[in-house]
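Honest question from a wet-lab person: if I give you the sequences of every part of a complex, can you actually get the arrangement of the whole thing, not just the pieces? Trying it with mine:
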Amino acid sequence: MPYELYYWPGIQGRGEFVRLALEEAGADYVDVARGPGGMSAMTRLMEKAAHPPFAPPFLKDGETLIGQTAAILLYLGARHGLAPKDPEGGLWTHQIQLTLSDLVAEAHDTHHPIATSLYYEDQKQEARRRAEDFCRNRIPKFLGWCETILARNPAGDAHLVGGTVTYADLSLFQVVEGLSYAFPRAMKRALRDLPKVAALREAVAARPRIRAYLDSDRRIPFNEEGIFRHYPELDG
Amino acid sequence: MPYELYYWPGIQGRGEFVRLALEEAGADYVDVARGPGGMSAMTRLMEKAAHPPFAPPFLKDGETLIGQTAAILLYLGARHGLAPKDPEGGLWTHQIQLTLSDLVAEAHDTHHPIATSLYYEDQKQEARRRAEDFCRNRIPKFLGWCETILARNPAGDAHLVGGTVTYADLSLFQVVEGLSYAFPRAMKRALRDLPKVAALREAVAARPRIRAYLDSDRRIPFNEEGIFRHYPELDG
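Yes, you can. This is the full assembly:
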């Protein structure tokens, strides 16, 4: 039975971290909310499930329903060899993912610093202040931490954890892609000091299954409804 | 060998979720940064460790170093019976924790909507707007989800997961305590519609080890340096 992924159709958003793991694993899955009747199926699960997810994305594997991006990846990583099998390595991979999730939340808040329930236009002033700090302080801090981890990996600097690809690598790729879309000027500057992060991004993009996915219409283009939005006035 | 907990001295912050789990477990631990030389030990680990934590809190168990609150609780929960042993129950408990972590991050941003690097006084206007939305929309949404989970727990509404206490229960207690300190008016209103959440809070506070902890000087009082801050102008 294929996995069922539930996420807002039309954006990459947090669902994209799950899609990348499923694609790299070559797993059979249905992106439910992008198909007919999918949105109401998604709403129904959120309202009626015994373990209701707080928000999309969530993954259904038979009777198992899992919400929260990092928890989904913890589950998929163990099943598809996208995380080390030893508990300590698995937990370290998860810890990196949780830190990338924090960065994603901060990236979202650059265009919605006041309220998700308001339009960008209603918080544009505040967004400009928040994005300035984000580009100047937060991007270098988070991605600098990733650069350090790559440098300290005893198995080499091609991966965040061990000597093979993990979901943490895929997620770092996605974060760099998203930030580069949203903040091209700030990211061009930041990546100059992050050669290992930049190399990992290229290496992930060149993986056969990821390349095929990125070239397919399963990959939704970045847009201004998602988490990573390109508003030139925010690119500091 | 006792666990070593590393967190900023002087605030409850995210470290408190770990402290509550350690206290309920009756585990032997040292709150390192509150002791002599503790701050420099904390900085040293962040700078030098093979698996450097991005930020406190982090936990050292022998040679194992774990950052990210939710990852620490995943680790402790399995070791101390503070989460179900079956993988699905363990993942569900973790998912609840991750959602509470999201709420904690949003609570922090009510007083720092623009930048952690700036003082509250430099973002007071924006804080007022963000806190208004937080009190009106986000608190009811997050805690309403917890109320639903309690209602749907097949083992009864005394716990979020199963029939015994988990770290998710302890964390929900802490979130309700913190929000009630920061936003007493908004929370008084919100809790009227959340009888199960309110009862869980009382039940956790009455657990012998938690009660002893709360009455001890190991429990740092809430204050305006932490995540949950009481600024009357933000209490909507």
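Two things worth pointing out. The CA atoms of residues 112 and 119 of chain A lie 8 Å apart. Chain A is about 55% helix and 5% strand.
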